[in-house]
Amino acid sequence: MTPQQPKSILAALRRGLNRLWSFFRKGPLDDDLNEEMAAHIDLATEEKMRSGLSRVEARRQAMIQFGGIMQAKENQRATRGIPSLDILVQDLTYSWRTLRRDTSFTMIAVIILAIGIGANISVFSVVNTILFRPLPFRDPDQLVRMGPITGNKGGMSTATYSSDAYEVFASKTKTLRDVMGYFAFSDRDNVRLNRGGTPLPVSMIMVTGNFFKALGVEPSLGRLFTAEESQKNARPVTLLSYPFWQRQFGADPNIIGRAISFGNTPVTVVGVLPENFDFGAVFEPGAKIDLFTPVNMDEIREEGNTLALFGRLQPNATLQQAQGEVNLLFPDLPGSLKHPEWKPGYTAGVQTLKDYVSGKLRRSLIVVWIAVGLILLIVCVNLSNLLLARAATRRKEFALRSALGAGRGRIIRQLLTESIVLSFTGAILGLGLAYVTTYYLAHKGSVALPLLGSIRVDGTALVWTLLITMATALVFGLIPAFRTTGKNLQEDLKDTGQGVSEGRSHDFLRSFLVISEVSLACVLLVGAGLLLRSFLQVMDVDLGFSPSQAAAIKVDYNDGNNADKKVAIFQEMQRRIEALPGVESAGISDNLPLDRNRSWDISAKGVQYPRGLLQATFVYIVSPGYLHSIGMRLAAGRDFTWADGPKDEKVVIINQTVARKLWPGQNPIGRIASAGGDDARVIGVIDDVQTDTIEGESGWQMYMPLSQQGNDGAQLVVRTKLPPAALASSVMTTLRSMNPAQPATEFRPLQRLVDRAVSPRRFFVLLVAFFAVLGVVLASLGIYGVISYSVTQRTKEIGIRMALGATAERVQFDVISRTLRLAFIGIVVGTVFSFITSRLIASLLFGTRPTDPITFVGMVVLLGSMALFAGYIPARRASRIEPMDALRLN
Amino acid sequence: MGEQKAEPKLDILQGTLDLMVLQTLSVMGSQHGYGIARRIEQVSDDTILLNQGTIYAALVRLQHRGWIAAEWGISENNRKAKFYSITRAGKKQLLKDAAYWQRLSEVMGRVLTMDESGGTQ
Q: How many CB pairs under 8 A join A and B?
């Protein structure tokens, strides 16, 4: 219905430019307008005076006729400039001035916000990296992993495939474009690089020839492997990881084509992998891999299941189709089913690589994410309360602005602008905090979480920051803004006393906020308490071995020694180590519990077993004395001796579980078992050891003597009477004296294996516990704030009561009981919520029920005492009020 | 808002103030804000509810569209005041808008006076 339609784009453009121009010339234009309006009023006044009115009356009427001056000005400004921008700038400057005036309030608010928002950005960055961000490969959604998805009791051997199985599968699959994998049993520091001086232990992974191509990894230098290079008698080649190339070869661009030597084998460098390729981050959290060589299928053919398999879905194939195909092909894969009755130990599933990498962590991460969200909520509630208290003292100011023509909406907008300014200032500090914490996390290698190295605050995290910052500002700003402007502001102008008129509803709102804060802190505390209890339970698990006072060092005598000679060397080594002062005993094993593992099979000789009874059995090839050195307990029979030679009867030691399953109710000692394909006499039974995980079942285990099985020699375990570190140098010196080329580097306390196994759990417990503590502190501050404020408000009232004979104790008691009342309601509400929420984390708990009474009681005691403490300070202040001083107020 | 009369004053319809200002300037030549406001009130026999202050938003709007021009001058009481005059573009716009309003009010008149037969009384 507007008659003035813009004639053309040009006209609209001109108006826009005019507005923009005006926006920047605000000062002069405002002066113009003021002068114009003054002239207007003068002219009107004079005209009215001519009709006989007094100057005063004439002016009054002129003003009435003009209407609200402020409104007219606002109106004109809004028309002439860019209205929203204009008001925003105005509000921002005003907010800035207001906040600067109240420095202590602003600082407290900004710090609380920075912690809350910073913690949220950090956690989001972790969640985003591990759960949301695609894996750093080409078309990562197409990548899948093959292997058991749940309930894998047989360790790594049941999660890997033989080279035969790989070849059959790779040639028959129709749903996968590429089947690839890597040799999963490569040990850390498994090869020695000869570059003059002591050989350098480096970690190498053997991968299928198509591995990098299938992942879509492009070399940053040189080329990838060719098909011929993974075949028999191929020229040995290697690809270097980017950091290794930088570290060891000074980023030498001429490295391609050069030969480096491992032991006595020269290996040609064909390429350098890109900087962003981190094998460990995706496939083996915590591992740093230096170089890669093509796996030779023929060489590993006799070693059983050794390949971790992955694939890339055909563009039109689904995960379900791939799973169907695997189910169909699996029984035919050679090697995977030597004995049909073993099937339960060897299941095959297909899952996306992303699920394989981060699926197990999803729940923990989401719990932490929720926890940190609760922290932000508590922060908001806290600030809401602070702002309410502050608003009460600013009501005169609002009343004045309202009288000058500012509408309620305008004042609410002003208050929200203040919240936003606070929130953004907090967010900027919080971002700094998040940058520091994520950098620390990314460079802290001790947590075995996937993708940890690539955690950083990225663009998505910035968008998230913006979102939560705005949301935060609204959440903590809205209630005070509406509350403050809700009453008749004009009334406040007449109000003389400060805050006396603050009504019950205002008080109620503040109490309500504190109660919700306490309830939120309850939920956090219960969650953290349950996780902490679980963690302690895990730490309390009987490992079956005793890591304290023991340490392990990797030894390697592979070079050109035959089996008999190696045994002799190991025996001599063990003898010399045991002779060192402070050493109680020593022993050798190919693997350590909670470290690498592999499984063979065991059954009682000549017995036919029903399907599903037998289970893949962890096998350890050990020297005499090893079982004692690592602190395992022999329940029956004897340990191995050096006399159990290669030509003697084969012997085996089994764990309690195997004994119970294969010879139920009988004494297994002296029985003949079929173990790893050979007959062996059972000579001992050992207590179960947590082999794969601390939390899971210990599984079937057997131990075989190094002197009969031949051992490449891996870990020398030393039990000491001294702290393990004190022995490090004498052990290393001894090892080097026997073999100068021995890369005896790290003498690591066995406790480190346990630490690594629990590190993800420890990581999450620490995070949640940190947030819970933060929550309790914030909630206590909230209680303190409210009680303290109410004491200030009621100074006069308390003074009167004391003048009338109330004792200091009585006053103190009143204040404290009010505090405890608030805390009590909060705790009751929080307990109810905690009962509901603790169920959600049930699957993360270990040896702890979601309703664990100790946790709940502990939470009540802790929060109660914090509340008591928070209330005590203002209570003391109240009891010290001098009646006469209080009455003299106002 | 002054004394309440028996007849409530007329609220200004959206957009009509601009047209009134243009017409006033077209008839009276160069004028300051107060003059324009007074003139409109007088012509309407004081039946229009005009907060005089609102005229300044209209003046800016018209200026931005290029329909009026402004110039500082001296008022009859010897004060500095801003004088507005209609531009050629403004005159053209006035003709168009005035015609539009004429037609609209005719139509409104007819619609509001129609009888049952559909014709006008």
A: 106
Rounded to a whole number, what is the distance in Å from the CA of A86 to chain B's nearest CA? 15
A78–B contact, CB cutoff 8 A? yes
Which amino acid appears at position A329 of this protein? L
CB distance A33 to B56 below 8 Å: yes
**Cross-chain CB nearest to B61 (options A1, A43, A79):** A79
Question: What is the 3 state secondary structure string of A713-770?
Answer: CCEEEEEECCCHHHHHHHHHHHHHHHCCCCCCCCEEECHHHHHHHHHHHHHHHHHHHH
Which of A36, A65, A68 lies nearest to residue B82, judging by beta carbons? A36
Are A39 and B38 an interchain contact pair (Cβ–Cβ within 8 Å)?
A: no
The answer to whether B80 touches B72, Cβ cutoff 8 Å, is: yes
Residues 28-47 of A with CB under 8 A from B: 32-33, 35-40, 42-44, 46-47
Mutation choice for A interface testing from B42, B49, B52 by most A CBs within 10 A: B52
Asked if A795 contacts A398 with a C-beta cutoff of 8 angstroms, the reply is no
Query: Most A CBs within 10 Å: which of B60, B67, B78, B108, as the mutation test of the A interface?
Result: B60
**Model pLDDT, residue A64:** 84
Task: Output Rg (C-alpha) for chain B, integer angstroms.
Answer: 17
Give me the pLDDT at residue B8, please.
63
* 3-class DSSP state of A450: coil
At A743 the pLDDT is: 66
Confidence at residue A547, expressed as pLDDT on a 0 to 100 scale: 92
**Is A57 in CB contact (< 8 Å) with chain B?**
no
Residue A49 pLDDT: 87
| Helix-then-strand count for chain A, H and E | 29, 24
Does the model's ipTM exceed the 0.85 cut? no
**Residue A325 to residue B25: CA distance in whole angstroms:** 87
Q: How far is B34 from chain A (nearest CA, A)?
A: 5
% helix, strand, coil for chain B, step of 5: 50, 15, 30
Which of A25, A42, A119, A663 lies closest to A368, judged by CA?
Answer: A119
- With left for phi above 0 and alpha for psi between -120 and 50, is residue A586 left, alpha or beta? beta
With an 8 Å Cβ cutoff, is A75 touching chain B?
yes
pLDDT of residue A157: 81
CA–CA distance, A601 with A702 (Å, rounded to integer): 9
Task: Give pLDDT, residue A207.
Answer: 94
Q: Do A68 and B93 touch (CB under 8 A)?
A: no
Q: What is the pLDDT of residue A593?
A: 93
Inter-CA distances, A697 with A151, A157, A556, A646, Å = 10, 16, 31, 33
| Burial A237-264, CB ≥16 within 10 A → b, else e | bbbbbbebbeebbeeeeebbeeebebbe
With contacts defined as CB-CB under 8 Å, which chain A residues touch B58? 79
Phi-psi region of A751 (alpha: psi -120 to 50; beta: other; left: phi over 0): alpha
- A59 CA: distance to closest CA in chain B (Å): 13
Q: Which residue has the tokens 């939560």?
A: A468
CB contact under 8 A, B53 and A19: no
CA distance B121 to B116: 10
Give the DSSP letter of residue A132.
I
Residue A204's nearest CA partner among A261, A164, A160, A154 is A261
Contact A472, A115 (CB under 8 A): no
Please answer yes or no on whether A36 and B57 come within 8 Å at the CB atom.
Answer: no
Instruction: Provide the whole-model pTM.
Output: 0.77
**Residue of A38, A154, A76, A84 whose CA lies nearest to A601:** A154
- For chain A, residues with pLDDT lower than 50 are 1-4, 6, 336-344, 496-501
Nearest CA in chain B to A10: B65
Torsion of CA A534, A536, A538, A540, to 10 degrees: -140
